[in-house]
Design a protein that fits this description.
The protein is mainly beta and 411 residues long. It is built from three helices and 17 strands. Helix content is 7%, strand content 52%. It has a 16-stranded antiparallel barrel with strand order 2-3-4-5-6-7-8-9-10-11-12-13-14-15-16-17. The chain starts with a helix and ends with a strand.
Length: 411
């Protein structure tokens, strides 16, 4: 077992040892009543430095990036604005919608675009004895809790390196899923996606599919979750459109690097775990983390060149935290590793154009965050980031405000 896997297993195992006998379980919260409500969130952040210089592409060496993985910018940015709502059509049928704007960072025009992230219908039974639900439309995946996180809901303002490299930061796609939850804390689901979200493209083979299972349990003092998942993603001539000619990069309107397309399949697996210990009415400790593995098999193409590609990406993040009243102090450690093998006449040129040569470099990032929940719906966040995702160190400070508000809820 690898080092990150051992860390996650140890954290979860320690939580289990401290459980009392009167355990009761929770899963995907499918047994909680659906209500009609409207919610909003706004996140603004000032950063002392950018992740990359002007007219420089944010490409970690060894990784085929894409999606909406934009680097953070210097100064004040609007990280997120969203409005979300759910409507209980009847006790078993519901509708969910969410639209928002997310800061795209340097060189991006994404932050000025209103995006519909969720627009789906769902049905669920009465949970006797098992909860079963069917949902269809545009939505976030549920195989990992991080898939639906944004700057307003996660502890840190920035997405993890894992999500930026493997999923293009956000995963919202059209699809359908079947979910289930048992009375014993075991839950899971199967999801099918059209394939419009990174790392897939909408191919004739049908996009991508995932399956997941998780175990949730808590007592009066300890809450813990352990989950695992697997996904198969197909792509046809997938390119990194972030820096293509139809995107702006300051005053530069030409691509920052040659366009290289990937065609093939990517098999992804992951583990996630979290635990929280309530020490007293004022103090608590928590730890959370995630490990992912991605194996890609296909070929790269650029103009008249082609090369066969086999790639393995492994990475993790671990985040211990201490909580006191309305304050949280946490440290997040992240690391990625890529092993790429290109074969064929075009391999040397495509290795250079695609940025897949690591030269022995391992991207890392260490983030320290203090979050003060000043009021029930308003929080202050201060972060210190030692960013070594690129060979050039890009350390920075960040100060942000997070507003989350329930605007209306049916009685």
């Amino acid at each position: 077992m690898s080092c990150p896997s051992r860390l996650l297993a140890t954290a979860y195992g320690s939580a289990l040892l401290s459980f009392s006998a009167n355990l009761f379980a929770h899963g995907l919260a499918m047994d909680s009543p659906r209500t009609t409500a409207l919610d909003a969130a706004v996140v603004g952040t000032w950063r002392s430095a950018a992740a990359v210089d002007d007219n420089t592409a944010w490409r970690m060496p060894g990784f085929l990036m894409g999606g909406e993985s934009w680097p953070v910018d210097e100064g004040v940015s609007l990280d997120e604005v969203n409005l979300s709502g759910q409507y209980a059509i009847d006790p078993n049928v519901y509708a969910v919608a969410k639209a928002g704007i997310h800061g795209g960072g340097k060189g991006s025009d994404h932050g000025d675009t209103l995006e519909v992230q969720h627009a789906y219908l769902g049905w669920r039974n009465t949970c006797a004895p098992f909860c079963i639900a069917v949902e269809a439309g545009k939505m976030s995946a549920l195989f990992s809790p991080a898939m639906a996180e944004h700057a307003s809901t996660r502890l840190l303002s920035e997405s993890s390196l894992l999500l930026d490299t493997l999923f293009g930061r956000d995963f919202h796609d059209q699809g359908a899923r079947i979910l289930w939850q048992s009375p014993w804390g075991i839950s899971g689901g199967v999801e099918h996606w059209r394939g419009q979200a990174f790392p897939s493209t909408a191919t004739d083979d049908g996009g991508n599919n995932d399956i997941f299972i998780r175990y949730d349990v808590h007592s009066d003092t300890v809450t813990a979750t352990l989950g695992g998942w697997a996904m198969r993603a197909d792509a046809e001539n997938r390119i990194d459109h972030r820096y293509s000619a139809d995107h702006s990069h300051g005053n530069n309107t030409t691509p920052l690097f040659p366009s290289v397309g990937f065609t093939g399949a990517t098999d992804l697996q992951g583990l996630h775990a979290s635990a929280r210990w309530k020490l007293s009415h004022a103090w608590a400790l928590s730890v959370s983390g995630e490990w992912m593995n991605a194996d890609a098999d296909g070929f790269l193409q650029n103009n008249q060149r082609t090369a066969n590609l086999r790639s393995q990406i492994r990475g993790y993040w671990v985040q211990p935290a201490i909580h006191w009243r309305a304050h949280t102090l946490a440290l997040r450690s992240e690391q990625l590793q890529a092993d790429n093998y290109l074969e064929g006449a075009g391999a040397p040129a495509l290795t250079l154009d695609s940025g897949l040569s690591t030269n022995g470099y391992t991207p890392e990032r260490l983030s320290l965050v203090w979050l003060w929940q000043w009021k029930s719906n308003l929080a202050l966040r201060v972060e210190a980031v030692d960013d070594r995702s690129l060979p050039d160190d890009a350390s920075r400070m960040a100060i942000g405000i997070v507003w989350r508000q329930n605007l209306w809820r049916a009685k």
